[in-house]
Amino acid sequence: MTTPWGERALARFPEDPRDRLRAWDASDEYLLGHLADQEVPLSGTVVVVGDRWGALVTALAEHRPVQITDSYLSQEATRANLARNGVEPGSVRLLTTQDPPPARIDVLLVRVPKSLALLEDQLLRLAPAVHEGTVVVGTGMVKEIHTSTLQLFERILGPTRTSLAVKKARLVFCTPDPARERPAGPWPLSYSLPDGIGTLSGRTVVNHAGVFCADRLDIGTRFFLQHLPAAGKGRRVVDLGCGNGVVGTAVALADPGAEVLFTDESFQAVASAEATYRANGAPGHAEFRVGDGLAGVPDGSVDLVLNNPPFHSHQATTDATAWRMFTGARRVLRPGGELWVVGNRHLGYHVKLRRLFGNSELVASDRKFVVLKAVKGRTGRPAGRAR
C-alpha cells in the first residue's frame, strides 16, 4: 500500500498465498491521504477504531497510535504487519473493544464497522475522552456509510458531514461537542429466548454490541437448537464460532458432565457467550477463548464440534473461514468424534465435509437450512463413503 509516509507491505491473517483479497481498501487510502493533505496534527493521542487488518496503524506507527478492535484476527494481522514493516515493538498500543479506552483522545479515526450497534457502543465508550479540539474522521466504502451512520456520529459526538466519494470510498467529518447530552448505551442487551427450541426455551441470552443478531435469535441458530445431538456423558464439546454462546450453553444444560469450550475471533462474542452461560447457571466446566478457530486445541482431544460458520469476511463473500473451521474440527476430533454444522442450503457444505471426512449425513433440513453431521474415522482417515 502506498501511503503519504511511504510504502507499506501488508497481508491479512492468517496468510494464505491463494487469497487475492488485499489487507486494505480505498477507504484506508482516502483517510491517510486526507490526514496528510490537511496536515492533521498527530502529536497527541491518536486512536484508530476498527482497523480491519492493521493498515491504518501500520501507516501511522511513527505517531504511536492506539488501535481498538473487536477482531482477534485483525489484531494478529496488525502484529504481523507491524513486524513486516520493521516497526519497533510497543510503538502501537493494541486494545480490544472489551478494554478501557484511553482517558484522552486528540485524533479519533473510525473505520466504520458493518454493525451499527458496534459503532454506537464504541462511540459512547469513547465520547468521554473526546474534547472540543479532537479531530474526528470516519472512513468506509460508500455502501458502508448510510444516513443512520451519520446520525449516530451526530447524536453521540457532534455535527457531522460527509466528503465526496473517491474510488467508491467516503469520509465522515465530525466536530465534537463535549457539552452534548448523550444517550445511555443499551449494551449488553438481555432478553428471553422463545419456546420450542429445546433446553434453552424461555432462558436468558446476553449480547454485547456487534454480535450477530444481537437483539433476537437468528433463524439458523433456532433451527440448530431444535436438532442438536442427544446428550452424551462427560463429552468434550466445542462451540466453534460461538457468537452469544446459546448453542454451547444448551449442550451444557442438557449434559451437566460436559466440558464445553466456547471460542470465537470476536472479543464481543466471547464476552457475550460467557455472560449467557453464567446467566443460565449452567453446570459443569466451561472455557471461554478468543482466538483463531481451533488453534491451540490439541489434536484428537474433542468428542463433538458444533458450528454455524460465517460466509462473509467484512464485505467479501468467502468460504475460506468455513473451510478452515472444518479442517480444524477434523484435526481436534477424536476418532469417532462428530462435527455438526448448520448452514444455508445453497452453501453446499456437504461437499466440503465429504472431501474432508469421507462422509456427510443430513440430520435435518427445511426450505432454507440444513444440519449436517460428519464423523471422523476410527483410523483418523476419512470415515466411510460419502453420502
Which structural category do the helix and sheet elements fall into? alpha/beta
Percent strand? 25-35%
Mean pLDDT: 92
Distance between the termini: 46 Å
String of helices and strands: EEHEHEHEEHEHEEEEHEHEHEEEEHEHEE
Shape descriptor: globular
Spatial order of the strands forming the largest sheet: 5-4-3-6-7-9-8
Flag low-confidence runs. Answer: 312-317
Oligomer: single chain
Structure description:
By secondary structure, the protein is α/β, with parallel strands linked by helices. Helices cover 26% and strands 27% of the residues. The protein contains ten helices and 20 strands. The chain has a seven-stranded mixed β-sheet, with helices on both faces. The protein has a seven-stranded mixed β-sheet with strand order 14-13-12-15-18-20-19, with helices on both faces. Strand 19 and strand 20 form a beta hairpin. The longest helix has 13 residues, at 72-84. The radius of gyration is 22 Å and the shape is globular. Mean pLDDT is 92; it is low at 312-317.
Give the tags:
alpha/beta; 26% helix; seven-stranded mixed sheet; single chain; 387 residues; 10 helices
Short description:
The chain has 387 residues and is of the alpha/beta class. The protein has helices spanning 26-37, 55-59, 72-84, 116-126, 147-156, 219-225, 246-254, 267-279, 320-332, 349-357; strands at 2-3, 6-7, 46-49, 66-69, 93-96, 105-111, 130-141, 160-162, 169-174, 189-192, 204-207, 236-240, 259-264, 285-290, 302-307, 312-313, 316-317, 333-344, 361-365, 369-375. The protein starts with a strand and ends in a 12-residue tail after the last strand.
